[in-house]
Amino acid sequence: MSLLGIDVGTTGCKSAAYSVEGTCLATAYREYETLHPEPNHAELNSAYVWDCIKSVIAEVAQATTADPITALSVSTMGEAMTPVSEDRRILGPCILSSDIRGGEYADRMRQELGQEAVFNINPNILAPSYSMPKLLWIRDHESHQYESAWKYLLWGDLVAFMLGCEPVTSFSHANRTLLFDIHREDWSDTLLEWAGIPREKLPRCVISGTIAGEVAPEMAAELGLPSGVQVVVGGHDQCVNSLGAGVVEPGKAVCGIGTFECITPSYDRIPTAEEMLPIGLNVEHQVLEGIYVSFIYNQSGTLVRWFRDTFAKADRGLLEPGQDIYDVLASEMPSEPSGLLVLPHFEMTGAPDFITDSAGVIAGLRVSTPRGAILKAIMEGATFYFVPSLDALTALGCDTSEFIATGGGAKSDAWLQIKADICGVPFVRPAITECGALGAAMLAGIATKVFASPQEAVDVFVQRDRVFEPDGARHQQYRELFAKYQQLYPALRELLATL
Known about the structure:
The chain is of the alpha+beta class.
């Protein structure tokens, strides 16, 4: 038997099958494009993404016939919701969290209900990025879609639904809507009433690890899966990623480096509004009972991909067999700090700032600046964004003496060394860095009793690969560069708001 983990992100989807002894048997990946129908709009073609998901499942299923898949689970992005019909048709695109549509509804909620009152029900910092503002924008601007949709499903819900299960959502995903009561672990009557959204438009809320059903026979035949594959409710990507990194007890922090970079500290309780609002942090269920997490996040991998596509598009056609474009570009980076400053505001920023009226900046360029220095500066700026929050995590009792690095960015030695040098603490790379798909597979095994406990799953799957220790001299150089970085946005705020 084997376990299938599926990871659906903003720019691509992955699937990976693992034996119950911890061996990765097969992986598959497909990339897709973010659509920008208008400035500051960001969508995915949900039907196309679903085709990509089916493709990665089928590819892995074909490669594991000798060790057939018995259960699967899904790690997916949050916020983005797709309209569906009762007969499992996708009715439109999903609006991504980086899309600014609906900001006026988040502002209204703040004015009419108050940030603290909302936080005491749904502990998030009010911003346009969540699902509720998007749903209200669709209701008021695309009413035909809103009225015709049977339900709006987050991506974890959508994958299970399209595989043949009834529509359910994890607590962690429901929390991303601004409509979930974290204490009652159900949709909030108060918040639904304020928004005017019928409960019937949303899936039922269940704890991660719930068995949602089995892959429907016709879908199993289409994908090449065995009959009877159990579908386990997964969770929001960083929550599943936390499990895949080995966090089965509260206290540790994970740094997931993907399209967005997200630092995910964990707690054994729900911190209060008095603790969290001053530092701009949310609270959400992890995928294991009794563990809660927060997210500090911003653009990261998407900036590196922008650099690749803008500055190295021609290079991709000149690669030798087996060469990776990112390795080629990393080899051009200087060994010392770049000396440049990058403000990572290319899109709306994430927690804790949620800045919607800014723009990206690369400062300090000269005609002698090589492109490798620009790439390094992008990685530095993406890391600087998180530095002010580290002291706040320590005050909350989180262990910030080291960070577990996961995601595609964690494969980069250069980037992890930059992070260690800037933060002044070790960054640990696990043997398997794609912890979204891994955590989903682990959750599938825990839920179906393949493993007697979460710790047993960790013992099988999670090992350390390498520890990146900070260099003291470079850390001091970065402290000086960070002091300049902190001046950049205040100096340009008014100008950037006009751009």
